[in-house]
Amino acid sequence: MTVESGPGVGPVRVLRVSGPSATTLMDGHERELRLPPGLKGGPPAAGDLVEVSEDGDGVEALLPRTSELRRGGPRGDRVVAANADLMIAVEAVVDPEIRPRFLDRYLAAAELADMKAAIVLTKTDLEHDRETITAITRRYETIGYPVLLGVSSDPVLAAQVTELIDGGIAVLAGHSGVGKSTLTTAVTGVERATSAVSQKARSGRHTTTDPRLIPLPSGGAVIDTAGVRTFHLPATEPDALASGFPEIAALASECRFRGCRHKGEDGCAVPGAVSEERLDSYRRLLSGS
């Protein structure tokens, strides 16, 4: 995966988009390019490849994407990151309390975007319920998701995450206050703003806002995204939602009726064959909750 590009080299990689401009990496330096209104394909996102206008000051065209990580919202879907190979969902084992359903939303978004996915659980140096975390870890490893545990600032965890990325582009996403930006700094060597966990709500206050692509010294890159308190899936047809849960999708052919939505229909093959927690997450998303 090539991060740097520019005139005479090839398309320019977008590092960050803010308002009417995009920060790009060109000839070893960050360069701001203006974004024309009505750009075909919509506004670019971190990770995009764009062509530069002849005057060298603006974006002329958005190149086709290999993947899009989208987030739903009241104003429609928004592309959080483009051309990523891997989505790493970051959650803390405690402070704030781990939210498996939150993980399920991120993992489903990655599956729907045809991206690989993995999980990093942070703050293992704090006192926590080890049995619960072990059970959660096994739940996801059984499905096939790699799970790493450690402390965000620990070089050992950073090395494991770098190995997981393996020269590609990875999106780091997760709940506010879980140590995601600290992990990004440990992996990339680039300082980004971090913040403490709110004592009132025990949920993080984030200072990272716009997603930003940061190249890795060893090759590849991470796209650091803002910590969020909620994450909504992009608009998805009910019949397609099961593809966001690979263990459920794998059993669909065994259901008695085609088009089964696994809500407890007679002859459904899913209940009892997958974890109740994951099935509950799927059904909640199916019902829009």
Which terms summarize this structure?
289 residues; alpha/beta; SH3 type barrels; Rossmann fold; six-stranded mixed beta sheet; five-stranded antiparallel beta sheet; 7 helices; 13 strands; globular
Q: Could you please say which CATH topology of the largest domain applies here?
A: Rossmann fold
Shape field: globular
Examine the secondary-structure arrangement and name the CATH architecture of the largest domain.
3-Layer(aba) Sandwich
CATH class of the largest domain: Alpha Beta
Number of helices: 7
Strand order of the largest sheet: 10-9-8-11-13-12
CATH superfamily of the largest domain: P-loop containing nucleotide triphosphate hydrolases
Element pattern in H and E? EEEEEEEEHEHEHEHEEHHH
Which value, in Å, is the CA radius of gyration? 20 Å
